[in-house]
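Good morning C.,

I know you're traveling, so I'll keep this short. The sequence:
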Amino acid sequence: MGPAQEHLKSLSDSREKRAKSDVLDGSGLAFSHVLDLRKAFQSDPHVAQQRLSEYYAPYSLAFADEAERSSLPRLHQSLLNPSSTLQVFAFMLGDGIAGGAHFKILRVGELTLSALEYVWVSPESRGRNLGRAICDTLDSFLSARGSICTVAEFHDPSLSSPESIEADAQAGITSKGRLQFWKKMGYQALDVPYICPPVVGQSVWNMDSLLGVKVLDEYRFQALATGPGYISVVRAYWDTFNSTYGSCQDYRRLVEQTEGLDRVELIPLDSPRRRKQHLS
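The tokens, ready to paste straight into the viewer:
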């Protein structure tokens, strides 16, 4: 084997090793490395459990409302469940966890897309542009796996209750502030109604949300930019929570309002939707 072939084999072996590892490369000086907690449980469950506990403390501070975050046992169970699509990445600064992200890989027919559930940065690690570094890492990771877009739920400030606005303010960031951050990250709003299924242990659907999207593949995204395509994305996302929505009256109204659209428009994330939910 000549020097060129040896070099190519070395590169191939290195890529294969990284693909099997539970650690991703860092991004410049923003963080030292990224720990894939699902893979970590496969390689060393004892250490992974310790890391998950370390991860959960700052995560629970970032999402102080219990209704807005997963419990530690539920996170643990999801990461051990091979049928779950949940991924949890811990972004490390040295030996400490500086931030994190939860996301899911979805399939809609022959298309792959992703759903972003949480991104957070610990208070002591803010001011280092880590939020953008996390988003950039996720974009690269998901694009490499064929995802055409990433969807995410956001509170719509124009529909939020005074109680919800106050809870956001106490957590240190407003709904408008969150939208401004995600707008900078390249997310846009889908100009259609959206409702959230009840969280675990509750029965009330959330009516004050919108669905945002970051397009990673403009050409293939067009297959989803219609009413039926939008509804198929909603179904794929809700199915990851085992949501029962077929008999839900609000869901049927959502379908009626959107399924016949020839095109779903993308608008700035902080712009008022022309097609808000009028479900009552």
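Safe travels,
E.
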